[in-house]
Amino acid sequence: MEEKKNILTYAGLKKLEDELHDLKVVKRKEVAGKIKEAREQGDLSENAEYDAAKDEQRDIEARIEEIEKILKNAEVVVEDEVDMDKVSVGCKIRVLDMEYNEEMELQIVGSTEANSLQGKISNESPVGKALIGARKNETVNVEMPAGVMRYQVLSIERNI
């Protein structure tokens, strides 16, 4: 089975690459120092610092593996080539929530970059799926557990 492509914006790619570099160069060295220090304290069977350092090392290695897997299957959206006539990954949009008559600014990103607190919604989320392909002034309906939400696309622009 072919692995799912991880759609990333250039900013998301850069952020993951920077995190990977930090984990490999800085964090690995820090945790190795902690493990060495804990070993020098003697009996490892009752050494909480050693156990904590080994747990941290395991977490770091797991995150490195996760990032490498994401990057291996990454498909970077070139924002300059995004079609501004319709909503797609890599664009910033303003929508009107028609139920609450409230404007929102959203950024459509791949699932690995999604962060609703920052207004970054995944192209795989119900709202993201409904908005993909919509044009300016078009209204989309989103099936939600709480009922149908309606959004009108007010503007589409490059995510700069």
Give a verbal description of the structure.
This protein has helices spanning 10-39, 48-72, 126-131; strands spanning 6-9, 74-77, 91-97, 102-109, 120-122, 139-144, 147-158. The chain is elongated and about 70 Å long. Helices cover 38% and strands 28% of the residues. The model has no long low-confidence stretch (mean pLDDT 90). Helix 1 packs antiparallel against helix 2. A hairpin with a 4-residue loop joins strand 3 and strand 4. The chain has 160 residues and is an alpha/beta fold. The protein has 3 helices and 7 strands; from the N terminus they run E-H-H-E-E-E-E-H-E-E. It has a 5-stranded mixed beta sheet. The protein has a two-stranded parallel ribbon with strand order 1-2. The protein starts with 5 loop residues before the first strand and ends with a strand.
